[in-house]
């Protein structure tokens, strides 16, 4: 698929996709006969996963480290699992903090009555 189609399907801009390629967050795309980028459907799963990491607050430098480990193959599975486990704990802590803040907001709103 062309970069415009990938952008449409992922919600990312073509600029962001090129940036992700340039920094190594995603593999460099193959080129077609005209020199245009051509992406395999499998990249959609990877970009969706990166989107989840980004949404949960993983810094780009950690996403890059994970991408490099992934590219290195199966021998890095333990390291990748460790990274994701640590990130999951960070996300859980952030969720608890947000839940506590939501409780405070709810109490404050209730204080105003109807």
Provide an overview of this structure.
With 114 residues, the protein is mainly α. The chain is 69% helix and 4% strand. The protein is built from 5 helices and 2 strands. The chain has helices spanning 3-10, 14-23, 43-55, 60-72, 77-111; strands at 30-31, 37-38. It has a two-stranded antiparallel ribbon. The longest helix has 35 residues, at 77-111. It is flat. The mean pLDDT is 95.
CA(first)-CA(last) distance: 54 Å
- How many beta-strand runs? 2
The spatial strand order of the largest sheet comes to: 1-2
Radius of gyration: 19 Å
Reading the helices and strands in chain order gives HHEEHHH
The low-confidence runs, each spanning 5 or more residues with pLDDT under 50, are: none
Q: So what's the overall shape?
A: flat
Helix content: 55-70%
**Assembly annotation:** single chain
Tally of alpha and pi helices: 5
- The overall average pLDDT, rounded, is 95
Largest sheet: 2 strands, antiparallel
Strand content: under 5%
The secondary-structure class comes to mainly alpha
